[in-house]
Design brief:
CATH superfamily of the largest domain: Cupredoxins -  blue copper proteins
Strand content: 25-35%
Number of strands: 22
CATH architecture of the largest domain: Sandwich
Strand order of the largest sheet: 13-11-15-20-17-18
Helix content: 10-25%
Order of helices and strands: HHEEHEEEEEEEHEEEHEEEEEEEEEHE
Bound molecules: copper (II) ion
Distance between the termini: 74 Å
CATH class of the largest domain: Mainly Beta
Amino acid sequence: MDHSQEGQELENRREAQKSGMSRREMVTKLGAGALGVAGAGYGLTRVNGASAGETAGAAGATAKAGVAEAAADSSVADPSAFGLPVVSRVAGEPEGMPGPITRRRAASVTETLTVKEATSQIEAGVHFPFMTFDGQVPGRMLRVRQGDEVRLRLENPTGNRRLHNIDLHAVYGPGGGAEATNAAPSQKNEFVFQARYPGAFVYHCAIPNLDMHISSGMFGMIVVEPPEGLPEVDREFYVGQHEVYTERETGEKGNHQFSAERMRREDPTYVLLNGGKYALTPDSHGAMEARVGETVRIFFANGGPNLTSSFHPIGNVFSKLWREGAVMSRPERWVQTASVPPGSTLVAEMEMEVPGPVKLVDHALSRVSRKGMMGVIDVKGRENPEVFRNSSEATSLAE
Ligand SMILES: [Cu+2]
């Protein structure tokens, strides 16, 4: 067993204990190794050439050596060193969500979300072990109608290392479904809920280390449409902000391990839109695209786990805004910057009056210029000089 596996088993054990699993359940779900029985586990692994179990007194020192070695490992720029599949992209496709609900009646629907643990790049050369719903950040948007009976299934495939579950803020019931969906690697679990109230809601993993799981990518949005649906628009985008806490500095190349210490201080290395630095811009996976004259709806989720977003469209304004995704409220009009707390959402419309980029940012701007939090909507179409025109080039004041 290598170090990462060993640390993982310890953590799974802690998570399982905190999530209230019995000893029998733990053995069933995680194997005997999870409890350190049959000699598997902690004390007997060779660390830096010595067995940690050789003397009791050596255990503490060896554990420290193990931490040092893990840190040294993280300087190796080989992303496969995390022991997870390496994928080229976790950034969710901002138009890759279901369209508006057209059904006139409530229905029974089944939604399956699959947890994927995988290493990907936050920016070029910066590798991070993500945990995701369906391989994307934010997790796949679920879209149902008020009154629907939803069978929500969570799959945790073989090859993943951690326990996971899902808490949906659209659910009346214990933990929003968390305990009901606890799933160890190689397991699936499910529950049924009725979507009683409309709105746009965050969902997230809620295993006891939930801040770590969310900051590793495990959050997304479920939209419960009212029976009459949402106002008609020309185009919709779905994006999500969250923070990543690592043991290295922002932009430092190499493998970035999660840092519990920085998370405790709420001092993120990165603040991201769709899981990558400037992921939805021409410099990375490409900008979103819209046309002059269109009304565009933004579904925005703030996974957090800790920071409130001051969400703002540079070069535009939210012409209608439903704070916290409360779509049954009267929309606020002409809002420049909206506070979106962690674990909440925003639904807003923008009018695309002129061509050019609209930048979606957190107006706590150090998160934009230093930590990666920006996406771009590239608006194409005819100039509209009545609304905006460049009337001169820059010239010298002396002229
Ligand atoms: Cu999880």
